[in-house]
Amino acid sequence: AALDGEAAYSRLADRFAVRRTDRSFWRHLDDVHRSAREADPLAFGLLDLNRLENR
């Protein structure tokens, strides 16, 4: 199914997103970094969260 607007996006995010205000955000981000480093250590880099939306 397509995301056909803001309401659909919000429902998807409510179900699957880990927002920056979530207490477990940093734990999840550590897991993402660990997985990326293990998958490709030569190309691994820290993710730029500058433009990460918290909606």
* First-last Cα distance: 21 Å
Report the C-alpha radius of gyration, rounded. Answer: 14 Å
The quaternary organization reads as: single chain
Question: How many individual helices?
Answer: 2
Sheet/helix structural class: mainly alpha
Helix content: 40-55%
Shape: elongated
Please outline the major beta sheet: none
Total strand segments: 0
**Mean pLDDT over all positions:** 88
Q: Topology as H/E string?
A: HH
| Percentage beta strand | under 5%
Short description:
The protein is mostly helical and 55 residues long.
Summarize the structure in words.
The longest helix is centred in the middle third of the chain and has 15 residues, at 25-39. This protein has one domain (1-55). The radius of gyration is 14 Å and the shape is elongated. The chain is an all-alpha fold. It contains 2 helices and no strands. The protein has helices at 6-16, 25-39.
Blueprint (SSEs and pairs):
Layout: H1 6-16, H2 25-39
Index terms:
55 residues, mainly alpha, single chain
